[in-house]
Specification:
Number of helices: 6
Radius of gyration: 15 Å
Number of strands: 9
Shape: globular
Distance between the termini: 36 Å
Helix content: 25-40%
Strand order of the largest sheet: 5-4-1-6-8-7-9
Length: about 190
C-alpha cells in the first residue's frame, strides 16, 4: 500500500503571535519533527503545505525528502491547504493528515494508523484523545473526493465525524497537546 502524508503548516499562528511551526521542541522545530515522523514512517510522498512565512519554514526542511506545496490562499482556511495536499498525493492508495502543532506525533503513531487500517480495512483511521477523534488520521483513496469537497474553513475532522461508522481508532492521548496559544506553551518544555 502506497501511503502519502500531508503536513499542514500554512497558518499564521495568530493566537500564538509567532510562527508555531518554528518553535523548538526537543532540539527540533515543530514542523521538522512532524515532517520527519512522516518520512521515518515510510510515507511517500510527504507533502508540506506552506503559506505564511513560507521561506523561513521551508528552510527548516531543505534536507528532507519532501515536496513543498505553496498555498497562496492560506488565509482562506485549513480546507484550502488540505485540498492542495490531497491533490499532490492523488496517486497514492492512502494518505495521512498531520498538523505541525502536535509535538508528540512520532513515526510510531503514523505506523499505528497504517497498521490499524490494514487490520480493520476501515477507510478512515483517526486518533482518539480528549474525548474526540481527529488527526493524525489516515484516509484511503475512496475518501479523497470527500476531502477535496471540504470547505475552506473545514478540516478532516468534519469527515471523521460525518462517517463515524467507517472510522477505526488508535488511542493517542498525547494528541490532546497542541500549540495554539501562549498558554499551551506551558505544557511543553520548549528548546
Amino acid at each position: 500500500m502506497k501511503v502519502g502524508a500531508i503536513v499542514l503548516a500554512a497558518g499564521a499562528s495568530s493566537r500564538l503571535g509567532r510562527a508555531k511551526q518554528l518553535l523548538a521542541y526537543r532540539g527540533q522545530t515543530l514542523v521538522r519533527r512532524i515532517t520527519q515522523a512522516a518520512v521515518d514512517a515510510g510515507c511517500s510522498p510527504v507533502i508540506v503545505v506552506l503559506g505564511c512565512e513560507r521561506e523561513r519554514i521551508a528552510a527548516e526542511l531543505r534536507d528532507l525528502p519532501v515536496e513543498i506545496v505553496s498555498n497562496d490562499n492560506w488565509e482562506r482556511g485549513l480546507g484550502s491547504s488540505l485540498r492542495l495536499g490531497v491533490k499532490a498525493v492523488a496517486d497514492g492508495d492512502a494518505l495521512v493528515i498531520l498538523v505541525c502543532d502536535q509535538p508528540h506525533v512520532s513515526d510510531e503513531v503514523v505506523q499505528r494508523l497504517i497498521e490499524t487500517q490494514t487490520k480493520t480495512n476501515c477507510p478512515i483511521v483517526a486518533s482518539a484523545y480528549a474525548e474526540t477523534r481527529g488527526v493524525p488520521a489516515l484516509f484511503m483513496r475512496e475518501c479523497f473526493p470527500a476531502l477535496l469537497s471540504l470547505g475552506d474553513g473545514e478540516g478532516a475532522k468534519v469527515l471523521i465525524g460525518a462517517r463515524e461508522s467507517e472510522v477505526a481508532l488508535i488511542d493517542f492521548p498525547e494528541g490532546a497537546i497542541d500549540i495554539d496559544a501562549t498558554e499551551d506553551l506551558s505544557r511543553l518544555e520548549l528548546g
